[in-house]
């Protein structure tokens, strides 16, 4: 038995020795013949949204770094292409035009040395007006929630082309490369309605009136949504002799200046509203719930913060 163990030990050592020797063999791989591509590293996303209320001054702007075997010098041109996208409820995505179109082209001379890296960089911007015109639309055609899909196409001096349709997932999404070649630019409607407002409820379901203040608190997870400190604007306190609003969850929703009300009170009744009139100084709404309660409220704007033109 000892002899068997001894022989097995010698055999195992021989295997280790042969294996270690084989690891030192240099593989015969022609590294010098490998091709080298190019990509555009995203250094800064300076502006990647269009303001629905200020399209004339909105822009898409990036700072890019050309990465290749010659520190960016192989870049010949970079095409900036765009198409418009809209989600049609119940239908799906609608693209205008069907395929993206050229909006502008960067030249090799646009890429310049920089103090932070050895690669050449460029900063550029495309105005919302230029993008809208390129896809054959007008500002009047644009709606909040629309998306402009910008796509970059890098053409190098060897006649090669690099874009989102031939980039690897790692190069497109990994933080080191940060080169998606495609950038969605959403048309957003900034909303800034958080605050405490004075109001007069000129009509209620019990025929009485009430004045007071109400707080709109922004919902962090839902841009444009605000919880109300009292969904009845004080109507419960006068109609039900001091009954507090309590822990109801009723919201005002601002979608590009179109106001709506949603949510329920602590009894589970849901709420809705209609804008009656809107001036910079006074917003008049009618609210109601599924229990049959209702009211007409005049909400005053705060100093230095006029109401937008609501619908």
Brief overview:
The protein has 311 residues and is mainly beta.
The structural class is mainly beta
> How widely separated are the two ends?
95 Å
Radius of gyration: 31 Å
Q: Kindly state the mean pLDDT as a whole number?
A: 89
How many domains, in number, for the residues? 2
Percent of residues in helices: 10-25%
Strand order of the largest sheet: 14-13-12-11-10-17-16-15
What is the count of DSSP helices, taking H or I runs of 4+ residues?
Answer: 4
- CATH uppermost class of the largest domain: Mainly Beta
Percent of residues in beta strands?
35-45%
CATH topology of the largest domain: Immunoglobulin-like
Question: How would you explain this protein's 3D organization?
Answer:
It is a single chain. By secondary structure, this protein is mainly β. It has 2 domains: 37-188, Immunoglobulin-like (Sandwich), CATH 2.60.40.1930; 195-300, Beta Barrel (Lipocalin), CATH 2.40.128. The chain has helices at 2-23, 128-134, 169-173, 235-239, and strands at 39-47, 49-51, 59-67, 75-88, 92-107, 120-127, 147-156, 161-162, 182-188, 195-204, 210-218, 225-228, 249-255, 258-264, 271-278, 282-289, 294-300. Strands 14-13-12-11-10-17-16-15 form an 8-stranded antiparallel beta sheet. β16 and β17 (294-300) form a beta hairpin.
